[in-house]
Design goal:
197 residues, Nucleotidyltransferase, domain 5
Length: 197
Amino acid sequence: MSPVSLTFAPSPIVVIVDTETTGLNPATCGLIQLAAVAYGRERKPLAMFHERIKLETVFDIDPKAIAVNGYDPATWGGELERVVLTEFRVWLAGLPDAGALTWCGANVPFDQGFLKAAADRHFGWRFIERQFSHRVLDVNSLAFIPLMANAVTGRSMSDLRQGAGIPKRAVHDALQDCLDTRAVLEWMFNSLTWSSP
């Protein structure tokens, strides 16, 4: 079987989204990084969004979470959460097929939960949610399908990166995670084991 080159249909656009946060609970923790990469038919990105978010002290901060993200208050910088979310909303609306975009990522419910909580604090989730269709492509969920059983030993994004030959990263970076997610997807589709019924 020849390798699959993962190209997405011309419509809708697939948007890989990733967040980095101050902890695990979207009700009490905040965003510190937001990235998204849109893909159309081409293997290269159609558009990219990436912003660091200024850490606001109103959020719970888990030292382990910000260490994983490489957060250093002396060098982090960033814009306020409201500013970044507004820029993201405008970026999404400017994509081809806005309103029919497919959300893709690793652990989509986590990222959606944080984006929803953040958007609701400022202007409402509907302004982001309405740019997407109801289609979701979750890489971690795909790893559980039986066809992937021979390709991966674990189901975490770290396991999937390792399977795809992507080097382990010292810290999480939302933009790099988006790019890695696409590489993992392509590797996953090339690793499927098909059998005749």
